[in-house]
Design goal:
There is one protein chain. Helix content is 39%, strand content 19%. By secondary structure, it is an alpha/beta fold. The protein has 2 domains: 219 residues, 3-Layer(aba) Sandwich (Rossmann fold), CATH 3.40.50; 108 residues, no CATH class. Strands 1-11-12-8-7-2-3-6 form an 8-stranded mixed β-sheet, sandwiched between helices. It has a two-stranded antiparallel ribbon with strand order 4-5. Helix 7 runs antiparallel to helix 11. It starts with a strand and ends with a strand. 44% of the residues are buried.
Length: 356
């Protein structure tokens, strides 16, 4: 492994720079890196298509590639991520979206369909009374849309307004109810958001990436593919279960209770969790070795973690693993992230670069 290199990625390891960026901000995902990171790492490492993002999240890598004419493939074992990534990277007939939107907004009377798949809180606790009624009515109309492309577009639009229309508060890896939140009425928030999505949809042209639901540790879906470059960020070594954190949004789009790549969360024992995490990541690196062309490059955004009072240098451990597999490895330290620990006030986030 080469020595540590340093480059200030600032906030580009976070979703913040894309919060107000057209197309990218159709669905807020705090854990995602930004399009600015994708742009910088492509230039820095001179990366070439085709690209793979095997933890595609909300499709940031895929959308950047689409807008720049690069062929790409995304993979995720979370069906919410798969749906959001597809919605953000498909091509649309805007006139069709506008017509469907008119029908969706024809909300009158009480919905006959009041299915609620979110198990942690009852619907009456999550939404104010009027917004709850509008939620069921809008979802019923959306589910009547016959074409999958348009139906998923509006489902993602509905799920995306949950943060500002519900009493749900995401606090790290925990969901709480905060009745003091100032909420936007759901119907108003949905109308504004979807109208903006429709107005931006005309920007989506050209290649549609292939977005697959699958497990990056196995790579079964990737057989037959070869990639020049991989840009991704695997789950961090922490105790956060994102299937719970984004459980309500998953419920809205109809994929509640389906999983994330988090096998290491099955144990509360920190030592077992750490061991399982790196076993998972070794499998992922071997999949990279299989699907990269000779000379191909993988860039992984990872974060070091404090586990059981111990600083775990995730970047260096993964670099060592990659070297044993046969990669030439380097580490670009990009940011120091604050943590709530007396002994370790911050941990670094890095890009681990694997060259085949």
């Amino acid at each position: 492994m080469e020595g540590l290199n340093y480059f200030d990625f600032n906030d580009f390891f976070t979703f913040s720079p894309d919060k107000k960026k057209a197309l990218y901000n159709w669905f807020y995902y705090k854990e995602a890196f930004s399009s600015g990171f994708v742009e910088r790492i492509i230039k820095m490492l001179d990366l070439k298509p085709p690209f793979l993002d095997p933890f595609c999240g909300v499709g940031t890598t895929l959308l950047y590639c689409k807008l720049h004419g690069f062929e790409s493939v995304g993979l995720d074992c979370n069906p919410l991520s798969v749906m959001v990534s597809r919605v953000k990277t498909r091509n649309y007939d805007v006139s069709v979206l506008k017509k469907v939107f008119e029908n969706v907004m024809k909300v009158g009377g009480l919905s006959q369909e009041r299915k609620w798949g979110f198990k942690f809180f009852k619907p009456e606790v999550v939404f104010p009374k009027k917004s709850l009624s509008d939620f069921f009515a809008l979802k019923e109309n959306i589910n009547k849309i016959e074409t999958r492309r348009e139906r998923e577009f509006f489902l993602v639009g509905l799920a995306s307004v949950i943060p500002q229309t519900s009493f749900i508060l995401k606090d790290g890896g925990v969901l709480k109810i905060d009745k003091s939140k100032r909420l936007v009425p759901l119907r108003i928030a949905f109308k504004r958001k979807v109208w903006r999505m429709i107005s931006e949809a005309s920007m989506l042209k050209g290649l549609e990436p292939e977005v697959l639901e699958g497990d990056a540790r196995v790579g079964e879906n990737l057989k037959g593919f070869k990639f020049s470059s991989i840009i991704t960020s695997p789950p961090y070594l922490n105790g956060v279960d994102y299937s719970k954190v984004y459980g309500l949004e998953s419920s809205v789009v109809g994929v509640e209770g389906k999983g994330f790549l988090r096998s290491f969360l099955l144990s509360r024992d920190m030592r077992i969790m750490k061991k399982a995490y790196f076993e998972d990541m070794e499998k992922v690196l071997r999949v990279f070795d299989d699907c990269l062309i000779d000379g191909g490059v993988a860039a992984l955004v990872v974060g070091n973690s404090v586990v059981g009072g111990e600083m775990v240098k995730v970047d260096e451990i993964l670099a060592e693993m990659g070297g044993e597999i046969g990669f030439k490895v380097s580490i670009i330290v990009g940011k120091e992230r604050g943590v709530r620990h007396l002994s370790f006030p911050s941990v670094r986030e890095s890009v681990v670069v694997f060259r085949k």
